[in-house]
Design brief:
Distance between the termini of chain A: 55 Å
Number of strands of chain A: 0
Number of helices of chain A: 1
Helix content of chain A: over 70%
Order of helices and strands of chain B: HHHHHHHHH
Oligomer: heterodimer
Structural class of chain A: mainly alpha
Largest interface: A-B, 22 and 31 residues
Strand content of chain B: under 5%
Radius of gyration of chain A: 17 Å
Chain lengths: ~40, ~240
Amino acid sequence: MMHLNHYIISAYLIVSIFLMMQWYIPWRRWKHFLNEQPS
Amino acid sequence: MIQTLLSPKHFFLFSNKLRRWALGLFLFSISYGLIGALYLAPPDYLQGDTFRIIYIHVPCAFLSLLVYTIMAASAILGLIFRLKLAFVIMRESVSLGAMFTLLALITGSLWGKPMWGTWWLWDARLTSELILLFIYVGILLFQFATRHRQQSERAVAILILIGFIDIPIIHFSVYWWNTLHQGATLRFLSPSTIAPEMLHPLISMLIAFFCYYLLVLSLRINYSLIALQQQTHWLTENKIR
């Protein structure tokens, strides 16, 4: 039975938060740019 | 030839296709990697389940070195061939590389506490990785501080090339000095020192993190190229998806 201690949970959580932050900022700018394009 | 292939126009169109492939590969490899890391891989005989931090620590550490190597290669291409795109790749990679270095240090610290009994020690591998973080932060601050981009890009490129000396030091630190940090888990020229059922999710996570880097980098570069090339006709002529 796998036992996830708070070190493992913290490590995975911190990495997920940072990766999502770095993805979200350029993605939002890119979506904003596409929305501004004339169809 | 190189200048044509790496022209902003070609790269812009290529990266729109690349992003779909990278996203597909990322979703596949992160799914398998996470299932393998948290469920399929058996606990380590010595470290128990805490060793599962390896599946995020090693990709972050590997990317911190790889991103810097890509930046150094781009700096050389930019300085020799005066490629705009090489400078853009170099500039947009800095914050990503800094993030991977910081995450490698944080996850290493979270792994070190239960295994070594301390959050931090002045080990050769840890110290050289910390120096890499300072180099990344220094480059970031230099980029923010310099207003005139055309002139600063060459200075940033030279700064990156000087800082590259830290990369082989980080890699060989575990062999050159007597360190508490373990040696390389993944070996390319000889069999790896890890069981296959633990190795496969690790390789999958490495692929996922590399795809993530490509995805975010291509988004950032495209936006940067738009800012640079707003007046050129090819941007408005090509349908953007």
